Amino acid sequence: MQKVTIKIAAILVATSLLYACGGTQEETIEEDVIVEEVVEVENQIDYVLPSPLQIAELFKNAGLTYIGDLTNPISNVDNYNSKYDQKLNFGIYSADMAYCIMNNQTQESINYLSTLRKVSEKLWMTDILNSMGLSERLEANVGNEDSLTYIMADLQMQMDDYLDKNGMGYTGSIIFAGAWIETMYLGVKVNENETNEKLISRLSEQAIILESLIASIKQNDDENEFSELITDLEKINAHFAEFDNESEDEFVLSAEAVKSLSEDVTALRAKTIGE
Amino acid sequence: MKKTIILSLSISILILTTAAIQVVQECDATALKKELKRELRPDYKYDSSKTSRFTYKTKVQVKEIEVPLFMGEKYRFLFNTAGLSKDIKVEIYSKRIGHKKRKLLYEIEQKENQHIYVFEPTKSRKMYINYTIPESAEVEQKGCMIFVLGYKLAVLKSLD
Asked: B107 pairs with which residues across the strands?
């Protein structure tokens, strides 16, 4: 009986060791494999979308000035009850916070941070905002735009990491869609207020991003949850129909095209924030 | 008899748990990204990242990542290969797989004792990163590749 027990024990330990040390068997196994150059190219392409902060900074460098009351009022936060609306408006508020930070509107930035915290609690992403001591860091760096943008970049990294760890990569695309819509809205509104050629050039260049954004959302839409958003974004993309990905020349929208783009972006933004 | 079985079961569980932890530790994406983040300072800011996890197969695999870049701006591509048990080929192209005008812009030559690689494109347009993962007889083996993108739009002051 004891012999049987010892045998069972030995088999258990040996099996575990074989499993755990599988890596050391490489050379022996490879000898038995017929080497054949078979290449499997994945059909699915991965997309790296830029941070909303980068786009906001690009716009700021092109002359995006600060106009109060353009951003989504924080009082709207309680209206977002579905996860879809919460994700989109997390993006909207992130873009608003970036806009305030870059224009030294520190108190507004802190208010938006509190709002983001509220939305993130609904999305179970509270850890990201709590772990960084963001409010303290924002307050400690009042007036120092460079430091504030670095803090925003840190927040972006934490968020990317959180979504990645929790297998929520698709959420990142939806949040980015919200941020992109808001940044575009701020851009077209500031341009409506005072026409700015540099800003128009940057608005036109967004064609590159929109293409990738739509493709990225489509890739994660097995259950057709985002078909309405895709249709809305494709409508915006139609304004960039003349953009040629192959061309080395700068693509700039005409004044008329900017006007109609402004109208559609404004309508989509109103729909997204629930105006 | 009971004692022997319990003892051997405990040893087995311990061995299996250690093996499982090792697999996870092979790809601690957060730590690997942090290493890359240090390579951005002082001039570049974190923009975005992509962790590509894969299981080795008996055939060569190719994964493609599209990276849109804005014209005239400066970017830094950072790769961390520490989560790989086998070398993989990393190439950056001007166009996607199958495009006639596709040009190779950069290729990482992996070196011993080096796991961080940097590429700064001279022109900024849409780019395509290709990972070519070699075949392996050990199909259970997993690995991960970390990519971080940094950007520099203006002269930034260093941050302590």
From this structure: B91
ipTM of model over 0.90: no
Please write the tens of the pLDDT for every residue from A1-10: 445 445 555 5
Interval A49-73 mean pLDDT: 94
Is the pLDDT confidence value at A32 over 70? no
Domains of chain B: residue spans and CATH? 29-152 (2.60.120)
Q: Can you tell me whether residue B117 is helix, strand or coil?
A: strand
CA distances from B105 to A247, B58, B65, B91 (A): 18, 28, 14, 8
Distance CA A28, CA A42 (A): 29
Using an 8 Å Cβ cutoff, are B85 and B50 in contact?
A: no
Measured N-to-C along each axis, helices A169-193 and A227-237 cross at an angle, to the nearest 10 degrees, of 40
pLDDT of residue A9: 52
Contact A94, A101 (CB under 8 A): no
- Tokens representing residue A160 in the block: 């990317």
Size of interface A-B (CB pairs under 8 A): 165
pTM greater than 0.90 (yes/no): no
Rg value, chain B, Cα: 20
Q: Tens of pLDDT along A70-110?
A: 999 999 999 999 999 999 999 999 999 999 988 888 889 88
Interface of B with A in 78-137 (CB under 8 A): 85, 96-97, 101, 126, 132, 135-137
**Confidence check: pLDDT of B84 > 50:** yes
Which tokens belong to B11?
Answer: 């040893």
Which B positions 52-81 lie with beta carbon below 8 A of chain A? 52, 57-71, 73
Which A positions 16-75 lie with beta carbon below 8 A of chain B? 16-17, 19-20, 22-23, 25-26, 29-30, 32-33, 36-42, 45-51, 53-54, 57-58, 61
